[in-house]
Amino acid sequence: MTAQLDRDAFFIAGTWAQPSTVARHDVVEAATGKVLGTSPLADRVDIDAAVLAAHTALHTEWGATTGTERAALLRRLAGALQARMKDTATLVSRENGMPRQLSIGTNGYFPSLVLNYYADLAERVDDVDTRVGMLSQTQVLREPVGVVAAITPWNYPMGLAAMKIAPALAAGCTVILKAPPEAALDAFVWADAALEAGLPAGVLNIVPGDREAGAYLVGHPLVDKVAFTGSTAAGRAVGEICGRLLRPVTLELGGKSAAILADDADLDVFLDALLDVCLPNNGQTCHASTRILAPQSTYEAVVAAVTDRVNSLRVGDPLDKTTQVGPLVSAAQRQRVLGYIESGRAAGARLTTGGAADNTTSSGWFVEPTVFADVDNAMTIAREEIFGPVLCVIPYTGDDEAVAIANDSDYGLGGSVWSTDLDRAAALASRIRTGSVGINHYALDLLGPFGGVKCSGIGRELGPEGLSAYLSLKSIYSAPPPRRPATADTSTDSDPK
Q: 321 FRET partner, CA 20 to 30 A, in 87, 204, 241, 439?
């Protein structure tokens, strides 16, 4: 065990708080299967303390801050995270198997970028919109929604936390971050950075915990808003609690996105982007385009090319800079993915590469990157989120059928269209019922709202819309000024001479 990676306390009210129980979780290194470190797990007493700290801060020191003051603190927090970005990226790669070349961007650099972006928006959040109407003059104020319960998953832990923490703090909210047990260690980097940045006590609280702790936090009477990223099944449970309480909630859930290759697509361009678009983070990505829709006229050529490219991907230690596909997060996740692969075989899909646990590594939770051809969109492997390195190549005839297959899904989070005719690609993209679509690539943009439709979620993160999710609008009506009576015109047209 690596002693320096053990964490013994929660971060509550600006200080290290001892857990109320002895419950701990072993964080296992994905590439080795060995214990990387340990973390306490929060129970109801710990959650109560964290929520009370956030509530107290909201109604005292933090509640009196201006947007400009919060912007300065956000920039200091960004700087503190930036100083730790390399070590943080390595830690996340060890926790969940993400290739470090990806982790340095998504878990290292991205959180600081998000904080600085929302710092800029925070400087304008206090602006008052004055509207003069027929019956009154209305001042529209934007106020913090209150105490925020932020619940994040293990696949992009630092980046997804930033997408909640940054806009919430910019708006003037306070936050309890409930981190997942599998990626509990990196969550404490936020605490270290908050202490260095001088964040007031209670503004940001860190409590790793299991699903039971998360459910208790979501339903806590002092929580005003919930922001959740995770599976659709867990999101439904969160949504049910919030619906019962009439509590605002943002849900970013699962996906089964489609990459439509038009008959004029540049296949080389697609293949060069395949890892980033279809298999990012070893397939453990909600918006990954794991359904590849290929025209019947070039179907076998696409299958062969995709198979060759996937077969060439370098599988190995996520800390090796040449690794393109690392291990899955846990033994349970590997078993789940292997179960889906067996389901594809049983349904009659044609396995063209992969399909087993990777035996080239001596330990860890590796699965061979896998491609299925002759996939019908009704098959389980085409309908359910696998969350592993498994691709389905589905044939279609004509643009209308391609759109119909892309939309024939319970999910709607991402997607992409590949064509040398940009007008055609844009037209196809507009017909896909999803939250985001890439044309000849796919990459989240800080300025663009991200979220899903259907079973992929409710609400949006990033962009100005991400800030709006943490603001409550208040209208102040003022009586219009009294009208002055018209005065008689006593002037004459006569010449005074």
A: 439
Q: Is 496 a member of any domain?
A: no
Distance between CA atoms of 38 and 53, rounded to whole angstroms?
25
Catalytic residue status for 286: yes
Measure the CA–CA gap between 60 and 471, rounded to whole angstroms.
18
Distance between CA atoms of residues 32 and 234, nearest Å = 28
Beta-bridge mates of residue 394: 293
- Catalytic hit among 95, 182, 252, 461: 252
pLDDT in tens, 265-294: 999 999 999 999 999 999 999 999 999 999
| 392 among known catalytic residues | no
* 160 plus 178 within the same structural domain: yes
Spell out the residues 6+ positions from residue 305 whose beta carbon is closer than 8 angstroms to its own: 267, 271
Query: Measured between alpha carbons, how far is residue 98 from residues 8, 53, 188, 281 in Å?
Result: 25, 34, 19, 5
When pLDDT is cut at 50, 70 and 90, the band that residue 491 belongs to is low
Candidates 173, 278, 286, 392; catalytic one: 286
Same domain, 468 and 338: no
**Among candidate residues 439, 460, 486, the one where a domain is terminated:** 439
Q: Which domain, by its residues, includes 348?
A: 258-439
- Do 199 and 262 share a domain, yes or no? no
SS (H, E, C) 462-483: CHHHHHHCCEEEEEEEECCCCC
Question: Are 249 and 309 in a shared domain?
Answer: no
3-state secondary structure of 148: strand
Are 123 and 66 members of one domain? yes
- Asked if 269 and 248 sit in the same domain, the reply is no
Q: How far is CA 401 from CA 262, 306, 398, 421, 475, in A?
A: 11, 21, 6, 18, 48
Count how many domains the chain has.
2
**What's the CATH code of the domain at 338?**
3.40.309.10
Could you tell me what percent of the chain has a pLDDT over 90? 93
Please tell me the distance from the alpha carbon of residue 190 to that of residue 275, in angstroms, as a whole number. 29
